[in-house]
Amino acid sequence: MFSIKRLTGLEILDSRGRPTVQATCALASGAVGTASVPSGASTGAAEALELRDGDPQRYRGLGCRRAVGHINGELNRALAGQSFEQQSQLDQAMLDLDGTANKSRLGANAILAVSLAFARACAAERGVPLYQYWAGLLDQPLQTLPRPTINLFSGGKHAGGQTTIQDVLIVPTSAHTIDEALAMTFAVYQAAAELSYHKYGMRALTADEGGLAPPFASAEAMLADAVEAIRNAGFEPGQEVALAVDVAASHFYQAGRYHLGTEPLDSRGMIAQLLTWLERYPIVSLEDGLAEEDWAHWPELRAAVAGRALVLGDDLLCTNSTRIRRAIAVGAADALLLKVNQIGTLSEAAEACQLARSAGWRVTISARSGETEDNWLADLAVGWAGDQIKVGSITQSERLAKYNRLLAIEAETGLPLVNWP
Fold first, then answer.
1. Is 339 among the residues known to form the active site?
2. Class of domain 2-127
3. Which CATH architecture is the domain 147-413 placed in?
């Protein structure tokens, strides 16, 4: 049994300079865990509610003092002195206390901060690494390390919308270790920065997640430049380094049409465009290729892409078990992008992960655009046997904290990279 002595919250700043929430959980044993929660820019409509203050005079309404107040107040009063045998018991107690479907009363940011801090404190009390504690939540052995999918170019909501699609990522497919994957990524990133300077006259200014963001003329230019950067770095596109694309189609979907280029596309036209990209570029993963509520056409996309690339659901699924079950039933996807703060507790995210696995899906463990220097995501991706990890680029300390933690876990465990693709 893990007995909570005290919960405390603190408003801190994320990587975009916006407020977010940190929680500390002190157990009666003396073990202490502190954790910070991320915040998204490209958010799905079905995500749990991130509680903000709404005061326009402070952080333009984005302050988190209300959420922090709930940790220091109601959550601490209700949970301090209570004992829990399992993570799920604590998480359920918080869900019952909140009493809303989307965690809007106490705030998903407050609830998740406590959920994560409790996990870290429990791992400390047991004297085990955090990844081992989290593997225990799913009752599975530690087998592999996730293969990084790393931001190279950014657009959409991550970069001011200079191009429509959100991210083009590189996948070091020939790498055998995290160390090798990061060294390969460095070479491609530097080649891309040089290309951006010579082609667009742009210095290596970066978007929210560290991706380069020159003024591409089109999504196709973004993809073509990524392939050119891979070649310039001395690698063979598709053989040594592949691409993953975060289309984020919900953000350019209006009145039943996809406003990707000069001519709006219907859903079948959008699918045809994605298939054209698959033919031209070495893409192994398509994330949110259609809008989150375009349910009628997701099965068509998956059927068309099957065996060529992952059909990865982010906004479509929102790490929400109800939406995942629907997607499994209709054959809408074959991979889950798992973001813990989309659903708001570790236990609900674990259920989402297990649902995806039961359907034979791949799972990508993902960070958010607004991150902190906390590195718990790396442990989660290892503990839950993520096939991929999506953190961002290899710049900015909030991204590097996760990559550096993966390097440490690799050195400690000797686990191999997952065999994908």
1. yes
2. alpha beta
3. Alpha-Beta Barrel (3.20)
